[in-house]
Amino acid sequence: MLQHQQVPTARSVSAHILLRVEKDAAFASASLDAALERTVQLSPADRRLTTELVYGVLRCERYLDRRIGAHVRRGTDKLDVEVRVHLRVAVYQLLILDRIPAFTTMSDAVDLVRDARGPHVARFANAVLRQIATEVEQHGHVPRHDAVKASLDPLLVQRVANALGSEDEANAMLCAGPFPAPLGIRVRSGQSVDTWMQVLRDACPGLRVERGKVIQQALLLAGAGRPDVLPGFDSSWCVQEEGSQVLGAALHAQPGDVVLDACAGRGNKTLLLSEQVGPSGCVDTADLHESKLRTLAARAACIGLPLHNVYAVDWTVGAGDVPDGYDRVLVDAPCSGVGTLRRRPEIGHRDLDRTVGALHNLQVEILARAALRCRSGGRVVYAVCSVLREEAESVVDAVLSRGVPVELAAFDSDHPIELLRGQTSMRLLPHRHGTDGYFVAGLRRR
Fold first, then answer.
1. Distance CA 26, CA 87 (A)
2. What is the pLDDT of residue 75?
3. Alpha carbons 140 and 428: distance in angstroms, whole number
4. Which three-class secondary structure state does DSSP give residue 153?
5. What is the pTM of this model?
6. Architecture of domain 246-445
7. DSSP state of 326
8. Rounded mean pLDDT of 349-376?
C-alpha cells in the first residue's frame, strides 16, 4: 500500500487517489471527494492543488509516461505502480505547472518514493526527475492543452471524429477545459438565479460564479470547495451539471403531466421534472438499482418533492410493474460516459471496443421498452452522456427499424431551450456549449 506522510499533502493525497484509479479502476471524482472529506487539514490552496494534480495527471497520462519513459531503460510499464504514480505527479508539476519550484517538487516526490519503496528506488526517482527538470530549464514548460492532446487515444479520437464530422472537432471536444470543470448547480423553481449568484459570492470570497450558457436556471461555480457547506444547498439549489439539466428540461414537462423517468439514477432530473409538473402532476421513477431509488425517495421527501411510484425494473427483461399511459417519458440511458471526459478523465483510458457494442444493445432494449410506456401522441426523449454514433443515432435507428411505434419528432418551436427548438436531435459539446457532451433525441409515440 502507498505510505502517507504523517501530515497529508496535496502530492501524497493526489498520489493515493491516482493509485486507486490505476489499481482498482476507481472513479477519480468520487475518490477525490472522499479523500478531501477525510483530509480536512488541507488548506484551500492545497485542496485546489490536489484537484489539479488528479485531473491533470489523468488527462495528460500518456504524454507524461512518454517523457518519463525516455529516461527509464525498461519503459514506464515495467515500473512499480506506486513509483510510476509518484513520478507522474511530479513530472506533471515540472512540465505543466509553473508556480511550484522544481526543487520542492522533486524533494517531495523523492521523499514519497523513499517512504513507499526505500532509498535505492528513491535515488532512481531523483535521477529521472533531475533529467526532466533540466529539460524544462532548457526548453520551457509544456502547454497543458498540448499535453492533453498528445495523451488522447487515437482510437477514441477516431470514434468521436466519426460522430462529429472531423478530427479537429474531435480533438477540440476531447481537449476541452477548463481544468477542472466548474461545478454546475441548478437553482430551484421559484428561486431567483441572480439573487443566488450574489448570495454565493458573498458567502465564499474568491468563488467565481457565472450564468450557464444553455439553460436559465444553471449557475457555474469555480473554486467552490464543498458545496454542501454553502448556503441554500439542496434546498434552494442542487448540484447538477448544466447539460444534465438540459436533458431533464428537454422533455418540456407541463403542469399536470404524468411523467416517467425511466433510468432515474441519482435522480437530479427526476427532481427537476417534479418541479415542472407541479402538485397537479406526478413523476414516477424507475431504475435497475433499488438502492438508488431508496436514496432518491429519501432525498425527495427531505426537500418536499415526494415521489409517486417507484419501480425497480430491468428494462432488458421487460417493463416489470411499470404501467403505460404516461404523457412523457425520459430515457437517460446508461452509456460509456465519453461526454463526461473532463470530469471523469479515467474514461479516456478504458477499452471502448470492449464495451460500446454491449452498451448499444442495452440502450436499444431500454429505449424500445420504456417508449411503450408512453401514451399515443406522448413525448419520449432519449439521451446519453456520450457523443458516439453507436450510442446515439444508431440506437434510435435500431429502435425505429424494430417497428417500435415511435417516430422522430422535432422539439417544440417555443421550447424554453433555444438550442432544441425545431431539432429532432442534437449534441451538446463542451467546446461549443460549455456543458459536458450529450446526445439528445425527441420522439413521439404513435
1. 20
2. 85
3. 36
4. coil
5. 0.94
6. 3-Layer(aba) Sandwich (3.40)
7. E
8. 95
